[in-house]
Amino acid sequence: MFRIRTTLAAVAVATVAAIAVAAPASAHDTIVSSTPAADSQLTTAPTEVVLTFSNNLISLDENSGTAMTVADESGEDWVAGEPTITADSVTVPLAEGMPNGAYTVTWQVVSSDGHPTSGEYSFSLAAPEAPAEPSATATESAAPDQSAEPSQPAESAEPAETASWPLLIGLGAVLLVAIVVFIVILVRRRR
Question: Which residues, in sequence order, are CB contacts of 111 under 8 Å at separation 6+?
Fold first, then answer.
């Protein structure tokens, strides 16, 4: 009877400790919407990127702690100004003349809980190209149209990032409980 009570007490303590550790970690704000949307294919170049989060963001002096890049396939950043935080949203203006292709939006903000959080997602641009001069053969004019297809956007890392922390904490809690139970059983067998 004493073994069962000791084991149950150890499991209860481990569970409470795991919940206490997991609660602050899962409080980070997450993206609820973005413009342009993740994995979207646009036909006109966007003029800005707007990210909306699950809670109001913290705006530090001179936006320190907040950053965003919008990089094309060659790595060129198309952000044309400083990020602006308004309640639960952060906005950056984009430069004109963005070429067709895939773009990766990388962001970092300060969550309402005071911790920095970051992530990335992708979208692609496939704007109609200006009419080209007539070429000598139809085959030559068809080739550039085929190569103008945008590459597939990179898979979004943001959902994996926001989902991985609670999962890792949960797995850590289960592992902690298993270790405590194993130690309690081992100590009881030696008596």
Answer: 27, 28, 29, 53, 55, 57, 58, 117
Model pTM score: 0.55
As a whole number of angstroms, the distance between CA 51 and CA 36 comes to 9
Question: What single-letter DSSP state applies at residue 94?
Answer: B
Residuewise pLDDT in 10s, the chain (191 residues): 566 666 656 666 566 555 555 544 445 778 899 999 999 999 999 999 999 998 888 877 665 678 899 999 999 999 999 998 888 899 999 999 999 999 999 999 888 888 888 899 999 999 887 665 555 444 444 445 444 444 444 444 444 444 455 666 777 778 888 888 888 888 888 77
The side-by-side arrangement of strands in the sheet containing 41-42 is: 41-42, 116-125, 101-110, 67-71
In this structure, what token pair is assigned to residue 23? 């609660």
